[in-house]
Model the fold of this input.
Amino acid sequence: QVQLVESGGGSVQAGGSLRLSCAASGFESGSSTSYCMGWFRQAPGKEREKVATIDAYGNTEYTDSVKERFTISGDNAKVYLEMVSLTTEDTGTYYCAAQQWVWLCPAEIRGFGYWGQGTQVTVSS
Done:
């Protein structure tokens, strides 16, 4: 049973930084080289958006709006999202997501089968 727990959210002023963490458990050992984890966010009134993904080999992808500002990384059973130069547009609930038994990260949100409860990020001006 895969479980994902996010932490690190909070309130920060524009221009500030935050680092989100996602603690994962329950991954099958056989999927250690075939999984994808990602960060998604959802602002009020908007659709959930893919922010960044990382696969078992360390390959990363980012949505254009966060490139050069956000960095996704993995360390053992944790995935991180380092965010700098935050703007009010980054405000939202950030979710950690994962999928086992994939060699490439899913292209669509629906391809991620496991989700955390989310952590709130609020950026004020």
User: Anything to note?
Assistant: Residues 34 and 102 are 5 Å apart (CA to CA).
